[in-house]
Design a protein that fits this description.
heterodimer, A: alpha+beta, DNA ligase i, domain 1, D-amino Acid Aminotransferase, Chain A, domain 1, 3 domains, seven-stranded mixed beta sheet, seven-stranded antiparallel beta sheet, 20 helices, B: 336 residues, alpha/beta, Metallo-beta-lactamase, Chain A, Rossmann fold, 2 domains, 19 strands, binds zinc ion
Chain lengths: 519, 336
Amino acid sequence: MRAFAALLERLAFTPQRNGKITHLKQYFSATPDPARGLALAAITGDLGLKAVTPSLLRGLAAERVDPELFAMSYDFVGDLAETIALIWQPASTTTDVPLPELVDELTNTPKSQLPARIADRLDTMSANDRYAYLKLATGGLRVGVSGRLARMALADFGSLPLADVEEIWHGLTPPYANLFAWAEGGEKPEAAAHAPFRPVMLSTPTDLAALSGYDRAEYVAEWKWDGIRVQAVCDQGTRRLYTRTGDDISAAFPDIIDALDFDGTLDGELLIKRDDIIAPFGDLQKRLGRKTVSRKMQESHPAHMRVYDVLMWEGHDLRALPFAERRGQMDQIIKTIDQPRIDLSPLLDFATWDDLAALRADPPDTVIEGVMIKRRDSPYLGGRMKGPWFKWKRDPMLIDAVLMYAQRGHGKRSGFYSDFTFGVWDADALVPVGKAYFGFTDDELKELDRFVRNNTTETFGPVRALKPLKVVEVAFEGLNRSPRHKSGVAMRFPRISRIRDDKPAAEADQIQTLRDMLD
Amino acid sequence: MSTASGLLEIRPEGLYCPPGGFYIDPVKPVDKALITHGHADHARAGHGAVMATSQTLDIMAIRYGEDFTGSRQIANGTQTVNDVSVSFHPAGHVLGSAQIKITHKSTGTAVITGDYSRQPNPACAPFEPVPCDILVTEATFALPVFRHPDPLGEIARVLASIEAFPDRAHLIGAYALGKAQRVIMLLRMAGWDCPIFIHGALQRLCDYHIDQGVPLGDLRPATIDRGKKSDFAGQIILGPPSAFAATWAQRFPDPVICFASGWMQVRARARQRGVELPLIISDHVDWPDLTQTITELNPAETWVTHGREDALLRWCELQGRTARPLRLLGYEEEQD
Ligand SMILES: [Zn+2]
Ligand SMILES: [Zn+2]
């Protein structure tokens, strides 16, 4: 438990992903099975312990501490588990109970006996262990490690291809002893589970200049829809919906799961579609990141899958076939599935690359963010970064904005003001419209940092308010209406694309320019 | 034995002793001040006369210049000031720190702790319990969540982190008076005998500690010659927290930001400061030591100042002790 507690502490305070990976790798190599696998599952939220509730914890505290002193402490600390961990009477001697023993106990102790059992454990732990134990028990670790990052650490730890780890990941269950054995030189575990995730095929950005070097006849093109890339699997009755990084989002999309009435693995784009209208990305966002979704939400925001490719069908692995052949089968497959929620992404009709450029510049639907270009003869190659598929996105939207606030960055950038809030003019006042953390070069970062230090009007904690002097060009991928923002709009993927020292602040854009971009 | 009415009172300038005609740690310039220790919220420049330990007087001169006061008087044994006798006793907080005991024959004895700590501190003399009728105690960490761990355990975490990240510099934020020297001494006790690099703002107070017999070892200025950034990989650098917000931190390779403070016990505090490795090292009493000190000295009255008064008052109430808050103005949240 002590090592696990120390790991959680370091992860929680380490901002950069490489630092987190280092901590995880060191923990994996220093910790035996099954503790390391249980820790991994706890961190990625796959442990599935019966949740110990906040009210159970409050009850424990009330038995030991004066309620007024507890209230004052909780008020100061701001986190229930942390308050209890700190306020608990320290043990005269502490025991380092193995993590598996604690997990087992939390899993198998009858609910009525749980409070007393937890109190006994707290009595023999150090404060740091108490904190980790209570976080483990309540299931809210929140150390900023996604499933994807954990798999990266594991791949790195065993020098394994990440795509291979992702492919078998969903077939495995904690404590992942076979996975660690593989990482340490043993045999690769079978992807034994039903409905496993298969690494998705990625595409490389391109543009007209690059495309003109290729023979148009060898390629097909289709729209790139602005939803999220998903993989839908039905394997002997087990149905799953995965993101492109292999996170299981089935629970948030029961409407899609219902429609997976087949045996196979499809690749496509998840969208919100009402009748014939594809809704903007913001509508889809409302359904993402949920553990459950209400019937009402399913009716107001109906999910839809637009299919790009087929990987498995009725027991056959189609990935080695040329794209043209898979595509030929897909027409039939979609007809067989016969679900209104699932349709096929149409191929585009174009004779030259210039034709395609014209289509791309003026797509028939605003929920299209560009075109995908695929070699007719390409097999489905999961996980490779550079391959025979290209994406050619619409040019980003641009505005000129004025820097308003700056905050220091983390890690390599700690000490630099690198997080910026920018705004545009609404009559005579600047209204903030977004935040950008990237887009600039290291030299530009230094220049911006110097600007911040020399032009601060006020500081609020870590934030500095700036004189309205610096104009930057902000590029972004799309715009949503947002009642939560004062400006009424929210940008997608904003970044600082250029510093406009040639432009006086008064000539930065007006809010109306953004509003005009909305439709 | 009387209540202290008459021995101490609150004035806008701070805590005042009418029969002695002096203030203790006043927040504004006054004619005569007794100063517990050299931290800025206790020791201010511009008084007519200052009485303090010789080390506190030295430290004030280092921080404010030789003309920080009209006249100085070194605390030495029991001295008489007007009608009261005054003596200074080690507080275990920082070098030169003292509790001040004042006695008046008709009103009894009060001890003003200033800031104090009961953890062993190799950079200063240990706290001495002084019996009294009125205890005026600080309450910086007066919440039951504050239990300072063994500081050597915290130092071990720094050394483990250097092992985990040998290419990164470890930057430890520590206040210039007391905390910096204590962290250096703890590193030495843990076996770190490489040079330790220090920010310019720590130099004079570190030199003074060495003069006073605190063996800080090999200290070097944390300056970088052109192109030598990588020299700081795997090294320990100490600076005042204010320097971390400035361009100073940029000169070190991919630094691990550490901060040595009692406030680091609370995660939200550490996160707020952007700290990657929080080190719970405090120069103040934690909750167990604070309540234990009150129990041990068993004063007729406990006056609480300078921190989280409410929780300590509640504790006194539960213990059946007489206590009152001294809501002194002019002290910000204690730096530690
Ligand atoms: Zn102090
Ligand atoms: Zn103080």
